[in-house]
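Worked example 3 (structure in, sequence out).
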């Protein structure tokens, strides 16, 4: 049977992030992708012009339609902009109990536009982090979830990841892309285990959708039966190559997308 993953996230009308990035990633990695749309965004490579939230009852209908028919092996969760949306998704996960949930706590777009309402952060902590097999915050997101300062070094990154595990996450992949230096270091932190993932920091403005792509690549690996460590390592390699190839696309006038199909085009 073909491995199936579902993305529960917002739509990016520009095609570089959100649902569109997730489905491209699933396809590139040999996984059948289904989707539950939580919000519509009017955006392009320059920024987000508008957000239209999908009613919670329709999010529920999408979740139940997908899970009642498809044998979902992994779930990636992205943009959930408001408390009612988070509650609907949490209730759907409770009903259907997927084996693997990868939660990307999307708070701010690459353009700097806010994608999560401030009053929804506590709901994300309480309702969804405890259901996540893996939480994938970048440095600003980890700081916001913990009401803590931005992690300045790997020791602080590990400490913040451990605090997020204490909130209920099974594991945390804390991403160092917003840091400085010649290398980008991510830390995969589980209880009593820390794995350091190193990649060259690539000089490009075309990084739109990087976080979405990484989390959906991990979900794809889990859907195919990889261990968490294997899935994270494979996802990191895939995203690094997609960023390296991003400038070949020449999409838009702002922060362009990574090249999801760099292996094929």
């Amino acid at each position: 049977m073909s491995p199936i993953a579902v993305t529960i996230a917002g739509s990016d009308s520009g095609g570089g992030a959100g649902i569109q990035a997730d489905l491209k990633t699933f396809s590139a990695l040999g996984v059948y992708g289904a989707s539950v749309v939580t919000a519509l965004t009017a955006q392009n490579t320059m920024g987000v012009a508008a957000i239209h939230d999908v009613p919670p009852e329709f999010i529920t209908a999408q979740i139940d339609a997908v899970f009642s028919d498809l044998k979902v092996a992994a779930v990636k969760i992205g943009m959930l902009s408001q408390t009612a949306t988070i509650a609907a998704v949490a209730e759907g996960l409770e009903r259907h109990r997927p084996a693997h949930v990868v939660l990307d706590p999307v708070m701010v777009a690459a353009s700097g536009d806010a994608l999560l309402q401030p009053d929804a952060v506590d709901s994300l902590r309480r309702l969804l982090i405890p259901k996540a097999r893996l939480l994938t915050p970048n440095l600003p997101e980890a700081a916001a979830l913990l009401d803590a300062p931005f992690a300045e070094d790997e020791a602080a990154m590990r400490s913040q990841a451990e605090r997020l595990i204490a909130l209920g996450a099974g594991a945390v992949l804390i991403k160092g892309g917003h840091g400085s230096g010649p290398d980008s270091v991510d830390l995969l932190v589980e209880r009593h285990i820390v794995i350091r993932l190193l990649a060259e920091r690539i000089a490009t403005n075309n990084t739109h959708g990087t976080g979405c792509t990484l989390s959906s690549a991990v979900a794809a690996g889990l859907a195919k039966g990889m261990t968490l460590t294997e899935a994270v390592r494979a996802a990191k390699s895939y995203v690094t190559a997609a960023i390296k190839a991003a400038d070949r696309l020449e999409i838009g006038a702002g922060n362009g997308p990574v090249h999801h199909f760099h292996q094929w085009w």
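Notes: The chain has one domain: 4-248. The beta strands are 4-12, 32-44, 47-53, 74-77, 101-103, 134-135, 172-174, 183-190, 193-200.
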